[in-house]
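Researcher: We plan to redesign the surface later, but first we want a full-length starting point. Tokens attached.
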């Protein structure tokens, strides 16, 4: 317990301090001279947020505002786009839109990295990383402002080629995340060698976490594994306060879900951010 306190860097009040107080009084007299002699040292201890109480990033989720069909969800066109190869045009559009938003926000003085979902085809395209780089340059957006979410299945088709693209993207300075973790087949050995910083636990495990002890076990052990590998963990699909509370207690780093906010049109995002970040 003592050791834990020390590593946490917390100054504790212990009885020894009490007993030496008299001796400290004489030391105090010498302190005036100590200041004059330049004997004081400034120490700093880093502080970091542990709780995701305020948004720090966003995920880009594509919708199609069809003139007669209305707003169409990605489940209705992404699989089709992937089959036909049209997906690379969609991905290009999304990355471009995200970079454009980022550039505009930078002018308004706020910083919010945007994550874009990429598919298998993108990762197997040897020109993909170059196209991403060109897009960032065109909008004068730093690579730290765009991150990419990759599903496990996207890595399985041709792991070597996908890995080569991931390394190119990582070299550009993009943050990479494994999306829908737990639903694919990636082995732990494989996970170990990926140049990713983040693991997103799939919402199917998060949704029932509070009621199903098996889901809870999967989430907890994924958190443990990811943290041991030095990865940040994002829980997706957080729909209620109880789940968020539990994830916090388990040390989950970030959360996403309807309980916090539903995906919103990008023009609404800056006002939402301002509202959420106002001093309480
Ligand atoms: P994903 O990347 O795993 O995104 C999370 C999905 O869960 C999104 O659905 C999001 O709206 C939804 N979601 C977020 N919070 C909650 C919650 O609390 N409860 C529930 N039930 N759902 C929640 P969406 O927007 O319909 O997207 C579905 C999938 O389509 C995405 O899953 C992603 O794989 C794909 N997708 C979306 N946009 C793009 C894109 O631009 N490119 C590609 N390649 N795929 C995309
Ligand atoms: Mg995603
Ligand atoms: Mg996901
Ligand atoms: Mg998903």
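Model: Full-length starting sequence:
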């Amino acid at each position: 317990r003592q050791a834990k306190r020390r590593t946490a860097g917390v100054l504790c009040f212990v009885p020894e301090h009490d007993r030496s107080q008299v001796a400290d009084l004489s030391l105090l007299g010498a302190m005036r001279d100590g200041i004059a002699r330049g004997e004081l040292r400034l120490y700093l201890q880093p502080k970091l947020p542990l709780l995701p109480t305020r948004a720090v990033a966003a995920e880009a989720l594509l919708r199609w505002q069809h003139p007669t069909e209305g707003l169409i969800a990605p489940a209705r066109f992404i699989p089709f786009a992937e089959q036909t190869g049209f997906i690379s045009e969609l991905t290009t559009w999304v990355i471009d839109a995200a970079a454009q938003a980022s550039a505009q926000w930078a002018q308004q003085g706020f910083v919010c990295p945007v994550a874009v979902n990429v598919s298998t085809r993108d990762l197997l395209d040897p020109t993909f990383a170059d196209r991403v780089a060109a897009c960032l340059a065109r909008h004068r957006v730093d690579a730290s402002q765009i991150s990419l979410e990759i599903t496990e299945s996207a890595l399985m088709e041709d792991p070597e080629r996908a890995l080569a693209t991931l390394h190119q993207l990582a070299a550009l300075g993009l943050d990479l995340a494994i999306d829908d973790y737990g639903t694919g087949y990636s082995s732990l050995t494989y996970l170990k060698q990926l140049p990713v910083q983040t693991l997103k636990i799939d919402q199917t495990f998060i949704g029932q976490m509070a009621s199903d002890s098996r889901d809870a076990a999967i989430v907890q052990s994924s958190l443990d594994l990811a943290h041991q590998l030095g990865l940040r963990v994002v829980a997706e699909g957080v729909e209620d306060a109880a789940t968020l509370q539990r994830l916090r207690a388990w040390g989950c780093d970030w959360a996403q879900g309807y309980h916090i906010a539903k995906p919103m049109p990008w023009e609404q995002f800056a006002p939402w951010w301002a509202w959420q970040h106002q001093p309480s």
